[in-house]
Amino acid sequence: MTMETKRQTARKLAALLVTMGMLLNPAFSAGQEKPKFKPGFNFYKPAQDIEIGKQGVAEVEKEVPLLKDAAVANYISKLGHALVEVAPGHKEYPWTFKVVNSQDINAFALPGGFIYINRGVLEAAENEGQLAGVISHEIGHVVMRHGTHRASQAQLGGGALGVLGGILGGGAGGQAAQIGAGFLTTSILLKNSRGAESQSDEIGTYMLYEAGYEPRAMAEFFDILGKKYPQRTVQFFSDHPNPDNRSKRVNKFIAKLGPAKQTRNDTPEFQSAKKRLLAMPAPAKAQPATKPAPSTSAGAPAPPSSRRLQYHGEGFSIAHPENWEVHQGPSGVTMAPAGGIFTGADGEWAQAYGASVMRLAPRQGPELETVTGDVIKSWQHSNPALRALQQKKGKVRGLPALSTTLENDSPLAGQRETLVLVTIDDPKGVLAVIFVAPQSEYRAYQPTFSAMLKSLEIR
Description:
Layout (H helix, E strand, L loop, with lengths): L2 H22 L21 H18 L6 H15 L11 E5 L6 E4 L3 E5 H6 L3 H16 L2 H11 L15 H4 L18 H18 L5 H12 L5 H6 L6 H9 L13 H12 L28 E6 L2 E6 L2 E6 L2 E6 L3 E3 L5 E3 L2 E9 L5 H15 L4 E10 L2 E11 L6 E11 L2 E10 H17 L1 E2 L1
Parallel strand pairs: 1-3
Antiparallel strand pairs: 2-3, 4-5, 5-15, 6-7, 7-10, 8-9, 10-14, 11-12, 12-13, 13-14
Helix pairs in contact: 3-5, 5-8, 5-9, 8-11
């Protein structure tokens, strides 16, 4: 065999190997990697997602009417579990898929794999690919742990800068009990950002591609909703903020998935389930549920009592005014006067008066300055009006500490607030104490805040 013949043979063999590789892995061309999806930081473990989700299920199913039709329920459950098989990330959850007997077009997922699809979604979808896209989008929220990620962000913010997350309402699971006219419309676990929506769009598109559906089906369904069913989708786009150029983003992402392949969009099972639903009587209109809410009054709370009560937390204790309420959560505690926790303009809970104490970083974690800077950056990301005014080094109980004074828009309409973040480098990590009050009243609260900091004991 001549040298040229050997070269030709080698080239043919290489081409054959590439072709075989593409046949064995038709979804991705040679050298192309599958998209990687990464969850955000999270204080919770996946097992806690499940527990939080179960608490949410107990509350949800007291309030929302589930569809009592075995054929439709079985179809949705079978489709949901099939889609989970191609989902990225955490899949070790007790997945359940249930249909809510409501013709409003909406869907939501609780942490831990508890997914609810409104009857209206099935009735509005034109084919199974579109329905699979909605379910895959919700699965995306679960596997990326968006609910507990957002709860973690809120806890990192100490409760003084937005939703109080797991600190209020008996832990993060308590937030899942806030049920309004829509489905948990004010819940921290379900208020997804546009970034979370974009990530779930990509995951849903990826899952459609992997499962053999037309990957554009989900984005097409969202576009159809706004045009054909504007009155029935108000809640959907409230719970699922529409990222800019959603279809354009999805189409751009599809190009990264690999070569086009033969897809299916519909099945007889979908059409049978939809036909059953359309033949059923319309569900009764649900009455808005009453939810507990913090004060919305602009009146100032009662002055702090001079009498103190000692609160004992994990690794610390602190004295607070006798007339302040204590809200304990998995990562810290919030102390506030009656009327000091408000419903903001966006419907979320926020602290206007009081203090919070929580653990920000474990032992042998980042340096004090790094942790403090990360906390402030996190606050500024979700609070563009927040400004750092000054920072001082010092000691608290003989331990290195930083005191950072900030100002921000108060949940009280038309007011600014002053916040003081005290971060302490103690043997167990970084402990944070946060004080907040409207700027016009901060001077009056200063003696109380100073007394609280002096009372702090670290064990």
